[in-house]
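Example 9 (inverse folding). The structure is encoded as follows.
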């Protein structure tokens, strides 16, 4: 494959960038230290506990329309504001808590997303008799995963994310559209969206 005319000296023809440590990453994870650490240690690694899944689902909803870097920088504040994403605690949030969150400049102050987080906490609790949120989400794991070589090849939805979105809504969840659910699926390793040439490809232990 021929390189692009604007390809940087440390960028491969497939769009990954070779870092000063000799490791290949996509451009979005190659420069910002926070994003680079997130990419190297968290993104695409399995999340199988209820609290962790609720946090990821909530933050993916808050990310809608924003950059993930914005959410990641605010994550410590989100954790503090939302009781470390313990569903039982968030489900008990009342009008005073809502007002507190809307006044908190350290998080994303969007009334619909804040109310969605509280509602989804109760929906998470309601799923426990049927195995819980983590098992519910993982039950939509596809049989195969994409193998993108460039950012242009990255899908944004799948039949499984559409089905997961539909069924979560039936269970009372909101802000769980197919694109948001596909982002969740990639974040927790249900699909491997690391570029083929990335040093992280296949490191989740789920896909080879």
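The amino acid assigned to each position is listed next.
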């Amino acid at each position: 494959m021929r390189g692009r005319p604007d390809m940087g000296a440390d960028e491969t023809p497939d769009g990954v960038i070779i870092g000063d440590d000799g490791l290949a990453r996509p451009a979005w994870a190659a420069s910002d230290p926070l994003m680079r650490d997130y990419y190297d240690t968290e993104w695409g690694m399995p999340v199988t506990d209820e609290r962790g899944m609720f946090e990821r689902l909530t933050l993916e909803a808050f990310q809608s329309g924003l950059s993930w870097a914005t959410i990641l920088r605010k994550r410590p504040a989100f954790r503090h504001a939302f009781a470390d994403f313990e569903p039982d605690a968030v489900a008990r949030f009342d009008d005073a808590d809502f007002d507190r969150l809307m006044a908190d400049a350290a998080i994303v102050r969007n009334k619909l997303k804040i109310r969605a987080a509280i509602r989804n906490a109760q929906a998470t609790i309601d799923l426990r008799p049927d195995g819980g949120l983590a098992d519910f989400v993982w039950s939509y794991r596809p049989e195969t995963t994409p193998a993108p070589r460039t950012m242009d090849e990255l899908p944004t939805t799948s039949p499984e994310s559409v089905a997961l979105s539909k069924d979560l809504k039936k269970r009372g969840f909101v802000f769980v559209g197919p694109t948001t659910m596909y982002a969740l699926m990639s974040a927790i390793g249900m699909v491997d969206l690391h570029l083929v040439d990335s040093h992280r490809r296949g490191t989740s232990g789920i896909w080879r």
